[in-house]
Amino acid sequence: MDATQNSKQDHNEKYSRYVCCALNIITPQNFDTLLENTLALIGDDKNKMDVIIDMIFKNSSSSSLYSEVYSKLCASILEKYQRDSIDSFEHIQRRILLNYEENVSKIVLEDRGKVPDEERYAIFCTLAFVAQMFKQKIVPLDKMQRFIDKLLPSETQPQQSLDFKLDCFIKLVEIVGKSLEELDKQYTDTIFDRIDKLTKAESLLGTRLYFLLLRVTELRENNWTPRLESLKPVTIDKIRREVEDEIERRNQEIIFWRKQRKAST
């Protein structure tokens, strides 16, 4: 009995180490391979399903660059089990929403004053991941709307609480805004009416938040197309091609200027 339990514990520890390693090295380039290997290891073991979902949420707070690929991983796992096992699909779905609610509650449960930079960064990374989960249609519309409502403060809230919640609100809406408007334009109009009221209280907001809210409004007016493209994970092949293109461009410049010098002498 003890030997069996020890063997099972060792197996679970190896699986956890594999998942941790896979999440740290996953890229668009190796996504399909890691997904296939992970699904083969999970099988119909609900404990393993819980482990990978919990670890995805935990890792999501370390870097926003992985938010898109992590959300795609969750969507792919759900898609696989939706085809093969409704029971497993529903189990994973419940686990995802449980993690979602736990992470959201940490952000909106109480008014926050000054948040340390390290904690603020982790929260913004979690927000980016949650936003991508909504875009993947994993987080339902009504849950996202309730989250946004809790983040968007009234004009009468204390300045410190206003700062933190508005920062979170802005980060979230910048990512989900387009999808949100496509699903419920009337609700989105209501949100931006509230933003308009807040921007009229510039003295309460302070200059930084005032201009951040104006930027969100401008983003919507520009059909949710940002002025600067955000950073995303890229494949090694793409980086290599970009480097080769840059080298070729510089070589062409050198050839051009050499010809110019010869022509002038």
TrEMBL record:
Keywords: Initiation factor, Protein biosynthesis. Signal peptide: none annotated. Pfam families: MIF4G. GO terms for molecular function: mRNA binding; translation initiation factor activity. SMART domains: MIF4G. Residues 16-223 form the MIF4G domain. GO terms for cellular component: eukaryotic translation initiation factor 4F complex. SUPFAM superfamilies: ARM repeat. PANTHER family: EUKARYOTIC TRANSLATION INITIATION FACTOR 4 GAMMA, EUKARYOTIC TRANSLATION INITIATION FACTOR 4 GAMMA 2. Belongs to the eukaryotic initiation factor 4G family. This is MIF4G domain-containing protein. The lineage of its organism: Eukaryota, Metazoa, Cnidaria, Hydrozoa, Hydroidolina.
